[in-house]
Design a protein that fits this description.
Length: 143
């Protein structure tokens, strides 16, 4: 058996009440927001770092920090004479002739001229071969 439910006519559920309820909810939210801003603004101001007074740098001479070689750029630095924490850096371009050559290997001996090749330690593809190597000076032959 089904019991019919009657419509409830109550002023609470009419549009005017809902409009007022929304208004009071919005008003309450804004009040809480304003209260929160008051608490935030009452906090002690945090101490901020004072900026250093500006000055015109008095740069020292450039000093090679890392030398450039045949495969890698180098770096130069200079320091301000008024404040040693102010450091300026710049790149030194790759120097295609700055090799780190190994020993000559070839036909040259202590007494006879010959040919030889040497390899760069920075890049094994960089080699130098010469056909006019002179006998090694200052060596002696055990005989």
């Amino acid at each position: 058996m089904i019991i019919p439910v009657q419509k409830v006519h109550c002023a609470i559920f009419k549009g005017d009440f809902m409009r007022k309820l929304r208004f009071f909810i919005i008003l309450a939210c804004l009040s809480l927001l304003a209260l929160g801003l008051v608490f935030v603004s009452c906090e002690e101001p945090k101490e901020t770092a004072k900026p250093e007074p500006e000055h015109v740098h008095q740069w020292g001479a450039w000093t090679v920090t890392t030398a450039a070689n045949c495969t890698t750029k180098g770096v130069e630095t200079r320091t301000c004479a008024l404040d040693a924490t102010h450091i300026d850096t710049r790149d030194i371009e790759i120097n295609s002739t700055a090799h780190n050559w190994g020993e000559w290997v070839g036909t040259v001996t202590c007494t006879e001229a010959g040919t030889g090749t040497r390899v760069c330690a920075y890049n094994g593809a960089h080699t130098e071969t010469r056909n006019d190597l002179q006998p090694l000076s200052g060596t002696t032959t055990n005989g």
